[in-house]
Structures are given as C-alpha cells and as structure tokens.
C-alpha cells in the first residue's frame, strides 16, 4: 500500500485577509462603549447574522433596558471618497428590517481611529423606500421589482462617535427606541396634547416604511385634539392627492403605503365634525384654516374620495345644528355645498341650501349667511379656494 507523500499537505481553511481588521474594529468599539459604562455582549461568530454586539445603555450605572444591536465594519475599504458606509445585500436589508431590536452600523477608521455610525433600522424602515420612490417618480418601474435591492448604504456625513458626541448618540438611540418599541403609537391615546403631537410626528416617520403607523393615526382621529389633530390631518393628507405639498425625500411616502392608507378614508359624520371643529378652533387662534395652504385644505383633501361623502356631510351638518356652535355648523354647510356641487351637480343645490337655512336659524343668523346665500343665488355654488 502506498501512502501519500508527506510533502503534499492537505488543504485547510485559511483566515480571511480582513479578519484582523474586522477584529480591530470590534475590539476598539467594545473598549469605547465599556468606557461609557455600557453593558456589552459580543455575538459569537458562529451566530453572527449581521449583529456583532448587543449593547445595553445605562444611566448612573443602572441598566435601563434600552438595548441595541451593532454591526461593526473596519477599514478604509468602507470609504468612498469622503463618504463612509457599508455594502448591503438584500439579505442584509431584510435582516435590518425584520430585527426585533434596532440595529446600528458602525465603521471604524483605523487610520484616524474614528467611528462612523448610522441607524440601519431607521434607514430601512423610514428612508429607503421613500428615497427610491421619490427618485423614480414619473419613471416606469417594473411591477415585480425587488423591494430590498442590495446597494451601498452611505452614512450621514460627519456623523462620528466619540466622547464629545456620545450624549447626542444616546439621545438619538433613546428617541428611536421610544418610537421603535411602540411607545409612540401608544401616545396617540395620551391625555397630554404634547405627547400626542410627538406621537403623530413619530408615526409619520414610521409610516413611511410601515402603513400601519399611519393607519393608527387615521383610526384614532377623534382621540386627537388641538395641535396633534392638526398635525395628524396634515400628515394623512400626504397619502391623498394634495396639490400643494412640496415633495422631497424627507416627506415622500411610497405609493403602496399611500394607497393602503388612502383606502381607509371613509369618514363618518362624527369624524367629519371633529376635524371641522378642531380646524375652526385653530382659525380662532390665528392658525391658517380654510384657505390654500391651511389645515382646512388638508381636511378637504382627506375628504375628496370618501364614499358617501355628501350624505355623511349632511348628517354631520344636522348634528352640528343640534349641539355645536354656529361657526362649526356654518362651516359644515359651506363644505357640504362645496362637495355637493362637485360630486352631485344634478342635485338642486340652491333648494337644499335654502331649506337647511330656513330650518335651522343657527345657519340663517350667522354673520356670513347673507353673503353666502347671495353667492349661491347668483352663481349656484360657492368655491372654497
């Protein structure tokens, strides 16, 4: 029997050329975070699926329960000119999107000994789809295009992590955890208007990647008041065909999200009255209301495609005449005739308005009633804008 020559060594696994550089980044970040009194759990390389470290923040050496995952890269290969970032496959993007805790990306520059970072969860949930859709607006896009197409993810310019920027970093983390963990959604039901307002803004950000956040705003509309209601109306109007929104990557909502939210715009008489009443209150406080660019215009945009709108507005008008002040009732009448003239031109608008004002003194005695009725008599319909 012949044995293989000892000179023919068997093939063995070899260390990647980048392994030492990668470890340098993980070790440097771990050392830095431990100096900030964070609790670090390193993910075993056998179980590393885009999460190198699990990090618990602390306050006064107490563990707060605020936890993030960190994906660490290291070396000059992650710099494209002056821009740092990481290449992400479709699998990476799905991992960030589906993670049960937020994932942050950190790239270590061993030459400058500097950390560059980015909230990867925020990127896939709040920015990526909107940026893609906005960039390609007006261009033909294949219907079966992959939602999470791999690409280089650029980090925000100048966003570095060190002792001077630590407080700003932790503030961003805690703010995102507040939204990511669902607290923002719960605050839609808060009694404090400021908390509601913050929740609406957070839901708008989350809703750009997940329609459910905006759907919650829509379905809690009667629980919101004051500035929170106004913010909600404006946020939801981004899902309708608002003619006066200056679109940008920062406020663009993907079409699939817009379609899903817009399909829920079936407003009941109570919801209609609630929005009209809050805009009227805002008008009395000096906020722009029933004019181009005002909150009232956003309300009109929301109502445009609502099923059975004229019937529901008529019901809302009757409710307003029974229990609300004259300004709310009169404004509801104006909106009712506005949509009646657009959606039901065959209706005898003059006769309907005449009967309503005769039946309800609250309408006929309003300060603007005479002028309004004169316009109806002369033109048959009054435009709101």
Write the layout of secondary structure elements.
Blueprint: H1 19-35, E1 39-42, E2 53-59, E3 62-74, E4 79-80, E5 83-88, H2 90-98, E6 103-109, E7 114-119, H3 120-135, E8 151-154, E9 160-161, H4 166-180, H5 183-186, H6 193-207, H7 211-219, H8 226-237, H9 255-262, H10 269-284, H11 295-303, H12 309-323, H13 326-343, H14 349-359, H15 361-364, H16 369-379
Parallel strand pairs: 3-6
Antiparallel strand pairs: 1-2, 2-3, 4-5, 5-8, 6-7, 7-9
Helix pairs in contact: 2-3, 6-7, 6-8, 7-9, 8-10, 8-11, 10-12, 10-13, 12-13
Profile the largest sheet: 6 strands, mixed
Overall 3D form: elongated
CA-CA gap between termini: 99 Å
How would you classify the helix and strand content by structural class?
Answer: alpha+beta
Helical content band: 40-55%
Protein architecture, described:
The chain has 385 residues and is an alpha+beta fold. The chain contains 16 helices and nine strands. It has helices at residues 19-35, 90-98, 120-135, 166-180, 183-186, 193-207, 211-219, 226-237, 255-262, 269-284, 295-303, 309-323, 326-343, 349-359, 361-364, 369-379, and strands at 39-42, 53-59, 62-74, 79-80, 83-88, 103-109, 114-119, 151-154, 160-161. The strands form two sheets. The chain has a six-stranded mixed β-sheet with strand order 1-2-3-6-7-9. Helix 6 (193-207) packs antiparallel against helix 7 (211-219) and helix 12 (309-323) runs antiparallel to helix 13 (326-343).
